[in-house]
Design a protein that fits this description.
The protein is built from two helices and ten strands, in the order ββββαββββαββ. It starts with 6 loop residues before the first strand and ends with a strand. Helix content is 8%, strand content 50%. It is mainly beta. Strands 2, 3, 4, 5, 6, 7 and 8 form a seven-stranded mixed sheet that branches. A three-stranded antiparallel sheet has the order 1-10-9, with no helix packed on it.
């Protein structure tokens, strides 16, 4: 966490990918890419299994149709108790269970999380600063 209570995420200067590691539910480390084009946080099915979140197969109450870069897919919605990044903890974060093709184990940090912050992207310096609203 930055000195002023911000989250400072460092990445390769000029890159169009901003990777980070978070801790979900206080116990599981998860790799994410910051994705301002994603409306929701996504987590892989392997993370759901490790966290012990049970999804009932065919439970349409928790399923929703989502548009992805690979087309329209169905994804289950789960609630994360907490998501910690850079020493900052946000509680009750909704996430979609979605395995990204050719990138197993990767999640996307979408706008339902990012919108809780003011974002300052300094791409040439390789810094993303998230300041709580």
């Amino acid at each position: 966490k930055g000195e002023d209570g911000t989250i400072v995420i460092r990445f390769k200067p000029g890159s169009n990918r901003i990777p980070l590691t978070s801790t979900m539910n206080g116990s599981l480390e998860q790799e994410f890419l910051v994705d301002t084009g994603a409306s929701m946080v996504t987590i892989p099915s392997s993370a759901v299994e490790e966290l012990g979140i049970e999804i009932v197969s065919g439970d349409h109450y928790n399923e929703r149709r989502v548009s992805t870069a690979g087309g329209v897919r169905m994804a289950s919605e789960v609630m994360l108790d907490s998501l910690e990044i850079g020493g900052w903890i946000e509680y009750e974060v909704k996430a979609l269970v979605l395995d990204i093709p050719d990138q197993p184990g990767l999640g996307l940090l979408g706008l339902n999380y990012l919108s809780r912050f003011r974002m300052d992207l300094q791409n040439d310096e390789g810094i993303l600063i998230l300041a709580p609203k």
